[in-house]
Amino acid sequence: MTNIDPASRPSADLVEHLARPSDEEVDALDAWWRANNYLTIGQIYLKANPLLREPLASEHIKPRLLGHWGTSPGLSFVYAHASRVIQRTGQQMIYLAGPGHGGPALVAAGYLEGTYTETYPNVTQDEQGLRRLFRQFSAPGGIPSHVSVPTPGSIHEGGELGYVLVHAFGAVMDNPDLIALAVVGDGEAETGPLEGSWKGISFLNPARDGAMLPVLHLNGAKIAGPTVLARKDPAELRSLLEGHGYDVIEVTGDDLPGMHHRFADALAHAWAAIRGIQVDARSGRWDGSRPRWPLIVLRTPKGWTGPEVVDGVQVAGTWRAHQVPLSGVRGNEDHLRVLEEWMRSYGPDELFDENGAPTEQVRRANPTGELRMSATRHANGGLLTRDLDLPDFRNYAVDVSDPGATRAESTRKLGEMMRDIYARNPDSFRLFCPDETNSNRLGAVFEVSDRAFAESVTPDDVSLSRDGRVMEVLSEHNCHGWLEGYTLTGRHGWFATYEAFAMVSASQTIQHSKWLQEAAHLGWREKIPSLNILLTSTAWRNDHNGFSHQGPGLIQNVITQRGSVGRVYLPPDANCLLSVADHCLRSRSYVNVVVIDKQPQLQWLAIDDAVEHCARGAGVWSWAGNDGGDPDIVLACAGDVVTMETVAAAGILRERMPDLRTRVVNVVDLMSLPRRKDHPHGMDEATFTKLFTDDIDVVFAFHGYPGAIHQLVHGRPDADRFRVRGFVEEGTTTTPFDMVVRNRASRYHLVMDALNNARRVPSGADDLTAWCRQRLAQHEAYVVENLEDMPEVRDWTLGDWAETG
């Protein structure tokens, strides 16, 4: 291995050596690749006779043939050559496999490097271990067919097509010594997220960040037909990629050893170009313009080295090679014979010794220690995670002497806290936001960091520079995926977006949750910083954007995840938000969704009360009700706007019907509602009873879809007594109060619900119901005439008890 001086360009001799491998090196590369291909096929087909020490028979074949061969030989070919570069240079590299089902190739790579046996000692490097390796693949009690969580060296689930580049870009941000080699499948390249993610180079800073090297692997076909980019004229494709800003290097063919030489040359020059860009940037020789980072286009046949023709039909190089080229092996002697010939064509006797371990020639292609891509610490980010240097969140508190008396923009206080986190953690914290940082009132971060931008900057631009570390791009997929790659490699951050647009990237949230859920079962996977999602511009306060921007659906997605991962917080004010944010940034391996609006809102709790309230997850606000310990009705709320409506409803009841005993319960941790056995945050039975009783009806005003609360309180005493008001897909461009009216969650609707469901209703209930209906009619006429809410609603504070009457 050559020691690379980080301040010097690679020498011409080193680059030449990398570009022109010796015959001995090519032999080692080819042996490793053949061994990988053999292991890949074995995982797909065999449950016994792993080294073909006896003639292949039907009883050696798995009952179900699962997995994907077509992309695998290309993935392992790239892996072998990347390992050679690492071995010769000491370059830290992580490998991300974008093609959906390349799992067997990457499992085989880890096995050949020895990492798999180190991680799973029962999968030994002998014949018995090979048998286990083959039997476990895509089988009950085994491992998935993707490059998934159990695969050492992986931070990317190959099945989530479209995200390989965003994960790779996120992995190298503030990670200057790392190259993320991201293989993009040509089927994957057709997805919207992938097409948008090429732009990541417009945000990399070569002085501070690592590099992402994409390999666009064009094998011509997806599961049942051709791919768009493979059928494009090569010159047109080159123009497309060059237009994105890349320096394109092309390698095409299937001839051996010629392909080894051509790809070694391409990879050597790509690596040298990356190092040259970084050295210039880190030594003061960078003019600030966006570098033209290298990109390799690799064209190989689908199912390269596999059966050419099966049953008289062309397979290799077509979509038929995508999954299992020989599908009827157990009942078809011809297919069984072809499979055996195919596997023996790789020369297993030359690749594995008499005990079944990889031979010295195969092992010669492996880097050592943590330089092995299957053993890199960057793929087990918890090993690299450092706790954030967090300021005391109490320093940003809003002064609340009386509940509901003053208004503040709650997220602005969080922005101030983020500003100081940026300053104290210059290489381990970032905010990722789709062009909405200022809109979401988080703009204080610009006091210490610009937006990152590697394209040209004009005098009209504000807080925009190549040195910025605030990540803004108008793509939820990019922002979400960058943060995933950032946290998976051990750093911390927030993804902030408008609530409705969180559904654009909701599948990413779900997939990351699944990753964390499975990682929790693997003792060798260290816990990583949580994925923190801040949702603002909520369904209830999109006054000018209208119905398209009104949708709280992400809550519904996250509460269905396992309790080991999913967390949803609905802080009602700034001080609760600060407490929740501090908790989220200290947490590990969760998906934390925090929902709060950015508009000025009433502030309820002093900071110490807020901390206590958030620690409990829910509590009685005795100052808002008058139950005296024995309520006739419980008014519960979760969410900022509906909390205000609930407190206002309680005020109406207290003023106009003081003999009705009303209890107000606010929920800030939504996952405190389920039973303890259903979620670790669930409150115990005694606490639940203390808040909600066992038999008094509960009118629950909820930020999201009403069904979520019914789902969460399932199994609680007499769960049918919970009557939930929430978002019911009624929306338009209208006033804030009109939104709660349209969704029948206003203070007047809550009062009427309370009257209809209270255990004991004093006289006058009919008159109060009529008064509420009158108020709703007045509201409807007023907003149409005046284009704003009635003053008694718009300017209401908790001190306005008398004005409610």
TrEMBL record:
PROSITE patterns, sorted: PHOSPHOKETOLASE_1, PHOSPHOKETOLASE_2
Residues in Xylulose 5-phosphate/Fructose 6-phosphate phosphoketolase N-terminal domain copies: 22-383
Keywords: Lyase, Thiamine pyrophosphate
Gene Ontology MF terms in the entry: aldehyde-lyase activity; magnesium ion binding
UniProt keyword annotation of Protease present: no
Pfam families with a match to the protein in the record: XFP, XFP_C, XFP_N
Cofactor: thiamine diphosphate
Gene3D superfamilies the record matches: 3.40.50.920, 3.40.50.970
TM spans (from-to): none
Keyword Lyase attached: yes
NCBIfam families xref list: PRK05261.1-4 (NF003619)
Protein family: Belongs to the XFP family.
The protein's name in its UniProt record: Phosphoketolase family protein
Species name: Nocardioides guangzhouensis
Lineage: Bacteria, Bacillati, Actinomycetota, Actinomycetes, Propionibacteriales
